Amino acid sequence: MQATLVKILKDMMMFNNLSACWRANGSKIYCGRRNALENVLLGRNVSAAQAA
């Protein structure tokens, strides 16, 4: 799990570069380069970042 959290943090730092492939719709965020579990985990963080 720690490695996944590190990956999430790295992805969050790259969020501006990836924003074109994100779609926030509740907890569903899709990107062709990510698997479903990452979409859910990253989606929660991205939604929080967008709300901030």
Automatic annotation (TrEMBL):
Tree of life domain: Eukaryota
Record-given protein name: 11610_t:CDS:1
Organism: Funneliformis mosseae
